[in-house]
Structures are given as structure tokens and as C-alpha cells.
């Protein structure tokens, strides 16, 4: 760690922290701040920073999906993408609550998987996304591959 990193880390507030993760907080003048005094109210984050955060979140989603889905590595890539999207958006706890969906997934019952996705609160909240995910699960195709 460099001298300037050490100094700024000691001087700047880090806001609320839990399990080694930083959370946004309001600084002494009311600006939303993150990490070591990073003003996100006025400055936001750069595209490269957003991609770095996205990549970290994708790694977390992959770890979570592998906890919920022992057959993940045997799935086709379009179906893996469905699982990663679900894990990314729902988190491990909510994804593991899709019991009928996960059961159908482990049996390879793709139509049932798609139907279960569409019959969820998440699908009612984000209908276009879940229609797309259900089609990917059912048809085993993805426009991103």
C-alpha cells in the first residue's frame, strides 16, 4: 500500500461496513459517499469502475448459483446464463426459494422451468426480463452467445 493510500484511508470515513463490504453513507455535508470518501452524489462512478463492480457481482452470482444448482456445470450456456441472471438479480436466498423451478431444472424439464419462472412474483415485477429468461430456458438459445 502506498503512502497516499494509507493517509487517505486513515483520513476518510469508510461509512457503514459489514462483512468486509462498504455501504453508501452521507458525509459531513450530506453528499452520498462510498468507500474512502468517494463522492458519488456529484461524481458518480466511471464506466471502468462500473464494469469492475459488475465483474465482482458476476463472481458472487456464480458462487451463489453453484450453491443452489449442483447441475450448473452440465447446463448448456443459454441455461447457465438464465441461472446467472436469476442469481445476480435475486441473490442466493431468493433463488433457493424457487424450489419447483430448481426441481424441474435438475430433472431437465425445460418447459416446466419456463412455466415456473413465469409464475413468480419476480416475473410479475419484471415481466419482460422473465419472458426472455423463460424463452431462453425453453428454447435453449440466447442472443448473447
Write the layout of secondary structure elements.
Layout: H1 3-11, E1 17-18, E2 21-22, E3 25-26, E4 32-34, E5 38-39, H2 47-68, H3 77-96, H4 99-107, H5 110-118, H6 121-125, H7 127-139
Architecture overview:
The protein has two domains: 3-39, no CATH class; 47-139, Orthogonal Bundle (Lysozyme), CATH 1.10.530.40. It is 60% helix and 8% strand. The longest helix has 22 residues, at 47-68. Strands 3-4-5 form a three-stranded antiparallel β-sheet, with no helix packed on it. A two-stranded antiparallel ribbon has the order 1-2. It starts with a helix and ends in a 6-residue tail after the last helix. A hairpin with a 5-residue loop joins strand 3 (25-26) and strand 4 (32-34). The chain has helices spanning 3-11, 47-68, 77-96, 99-107, 110-118, 121-125, 127-139; strands at 17-18, 21-22, 25-26, 32-34, 38-39.
Task: Give me a quick take on this structure.
It contains 7 helices and 5 strands. With 145 residues, it is mostly helical.
The amount of beta strand, in percent, is 5-15%
Q: Name the quaternary structure.
A: single chain
CATH architecture of the largest domain: Orthogonal Bundle
Strand order of the largest sheet: 3-4-5
Question: What structural category do the secondary elements indicate?
Answer: mainly alpha
Mean pLDDT: 91
